[in-house]
Design a protein that fits this description.
With 285 residues, the chain is of the alpha+beta class. It has two domains: 126 residues, Protein Transport Mog1p, Chain A (3-Layer(aba) Sandwich); 124 residues, TM1622-like (Protein Transport Mog1p, Chain A, 3-Layer(aba) Sandwich). Helix content is 26%, strand content 33%. It has six helices and 15 strands. The strands form three sheets. The protein has a seven-stranded antiparallel β-sheet, with helices on both faces. A six-stranded antiparallel β-sheet has the order 1-2-3-6-5-4. A hairpin with a 2-residue loop joins β4 and β5. The two termini are 40 Å apart. 32% of the residues are buried. This is Lipoprotein. It comes from Hallerella succinigenes.
Length: 285
């Protein structure tokens, strides 16, 4: 094969890869996504402005960097309607934050609401909410197959969580604290994970991304206003985390914030904190 032909193929591959990585609901033809080999009977798209006008204000979608939304209806069999609401966020982390904090979606088992069942599936930056009649049967495998057809399909925790320790994690004790970290008002989201091992329970957290020095100082000032004990050692802050737990936090070079807290002795807390701080500092995300 000639050199220019190879170069042309490589450029095409890069172009389509870039398009897939930047795909949004607004530039996808949703009529091409089949369910039980049938196209949708209705599709309605909303951008970031119109979606906030369409959904209930109580959803607080503005807090989670919502980008777009689609309402898609299928009629797999006569009299059967499968409604799918697809929420698309700015990032995987924003989608996970809404899933964990909103209390509006259920991913494990279908929830019965009136004469319908509802179940959600998270995939990368998108959240798929399926609604169908109580007397209808839609297998989870079928719904998963539908979700997997979308570009940028990813499951599991976003990369940022992988910088926190993997050993001794407590299943289900993963959270994203958006505006209130450890009961203290904050201006930066924190990703938190609970741990248990060697008869000890403790927690580690890191900021979603970069935290300004001003936002960091405001959080420290809010701790002090809460009458909790606070001590400073160089750039490290040691404080009363509540419920008799010790806490230690630091804004790393580069702007990420890390924190460890729990019912730990001084030495045990320091060792865990130093490891978490180093792991987060070394991580690319």
């Amino acid at each position: 094969m000639r050199t220019f032909e190879i170069l042309g193929l490589l450029l095409c591959a890069l172009f389509w890869g870039a398009c897939e990585g930047n795909s949004t609901l607004l530039n996808l033809n949703l009529y091409k996504f089949l369910y039980r080999e049938k196209p949708p009977v209705h599709v309605q798209l909303y951008d970031s402005n119109s979606v906030l006008q369409h959904v209930p204000h109580a959803w607080h979608l503005h807090r989670y960097a919502i980008s777009n939304m689609a309402e898609v209806d299928y009629a797999p069999t006569p009299g059967d309607t499968l409604h799918i609401r697809i929420l698309e966020f700015s990032s995987d982390m924003a989608a996970l934050a809404f899933y964990l904090n909103s209390g509006l979606v259920q991913e494990t088992l279908p929830v019965v609401e009136g004469d319908s069942r509802e179940i959600a599936m998270r995939a990368g930056k998108r959240l798929f909410v399926f609604r169908y009649g109580l007397l209808r049967n839609h297998e989870r495998a079928e719904l998963e197959h539908y979700v997997q057809a979308f570009p940028d399909y990813r499951t599991g925790l976003p990369q940022e969580f992988l910088s926190l320790p993997l050993q001794d994690r407590i299943p289900g004790e993963t959270s994203i604290q958006m505006r209130n970290f450890l009961g203290i008002p904050s201006e930066f989201p924190m990703l938190a994970q609970g741990y248990q091992g060697n008869d000890l329970r403790w927690n580690a957290a890191r900021s979603w991304g970069y935290v300004s020095q001003e936002a960091w100082q405001k959080w420290i000032a809010n701790i002090q206003r809460s009458d909790r004990r606070v001590e400073f050692s160089a750039d490290t802050v040691r404080f009363d985390a509540g419920a008799g737990e010790r806490g230690v936090a630091l804004r790393l070079t580069g702007g990420r914030v890390v924190c460890v807290w729990g019912h730990l002795g001084v030495k045990s807390l320091r060792e865990r904190f130093e490891k978490v701080a180093q792991d987060v500092y070394d991580s690319p995300e």
